[in-house]
Amino acid sequence: MLISIDIRRVPGGLQLTVGDTWRTRLNYDQADELLTALSADTPAYLGGVRDVALAYLPNYPEAGEGTLARFDGKITDDLRHMTCVSRTDLHAMRDLGELLRAHMPDRLPPLPGGIDSPWPPALPS
Predict the structure, then answer these.
(1) Fewer Cβ atoms within 10 Å of its own Cβ: the N or the C terminal residue of the chain?
(2) Which residues pair with 24 in a beta bridge?
């Protein structure tokens, strides 16, 4: 299943718009936590602004799928409280993590060896 996610930088963080159904804002720390979880296939539970929260659940509801869930209010362990859900395969979720990273280039650690280092970096032998 394909989902459409629009990512935009906003003052202090990122705004994610999923399809035409829901939108949430994450500060940079939350965005970094989400992209780490997406890349590593680990769960993330992020409190949002204005009583909205976001959860990432890898391998839910089935193995090989990932789910982004929006909660209006506090995240609970009862998934019936989710107000919006988007799910797709784990590869697409990992790609979403890379898209989040691409929207925060100034927040990434510098390349080893400085800006004049060759790209791509040589692999250690």
Answers:
(1) C
(2) 16
**The two three-digit tokens of residue 41, written as one number:** 């296939």
Cα distance between residue 30 and residue 11, in whole Å: 14
Contacts of 92 by beta carbon, 8 Å cutoff, 6+ apart = 2, 3, 66
| Structure-token pair, residue 5 | 């996610």
Burial 64-96 (b: 16+ CB within 10 A, else e): ebbbbbbbeeebeeeeeebebbbbbeeebbbeb
- CA-CA distance, 82 to 56, in Å (whole number)? 12
